[in-house]
Amino acid sequence: MSRNSWKHLELRITAASLALLAMAMVFLHYSEELIDVWIDDGRYNVLIEQAALRNGVEPALIKAVIFQESKFRPDVRGSQGEIGLMQILPGGAVADYARVHRSAQPPDRELFDPARNIEIGSWYLGRALRRWKKYRCVRELALCQYNAGESRADRWKPQDPAGNVVQNIDIASTSRYVTNVMRRYEHYRKKQKTAPDAVATTKKSSRP
Prior knowledge:
The protein is 63% helix and 0% strand. By secondary structure, the chain is mostly helical. The chain folds into two domains: 1-38; 41-204, Lysozyme.
């Protein structure tokens, strides 16, 4: 192949690479909108709003957790036994819910029911929000607890209640989880005409 032919080939490869890069940038820019088209994230709005009111949690935060956990698929089963829309654990959130409410623990098959799953998951999230309500990053700490447990959230809490949290998280998957949920939470908040303050809402809740 001649030197000119090589140059033409290099130019073509460079142009193709630039075109692919441009397409990737466009995809990333509109990924949120594309995901909204593919996923029906409004099908459980009524259940989410009802559970949010009962448990003192912003609907946008519940929706963001569901988006991250299951992409709104009620039949999902996690690798560690997590169940349903909010990926609740029978030995974790479900057991705590039953103990606090002095009720029998529901069998796993009932946890796939969207109303049941959202209620228990929202209760568990609401309790975490109340646990960390004195911190500026109350949502981030509550998400740490939801994802990795209260003891780890306690380890990651900032010394100054006004400080940041994400930089203290030493588990990469939890750091990504919190970042992704918060990004999606802001996305849902922007879609709402009004958004109640989470700290104020959690203070109003009388749930255990």
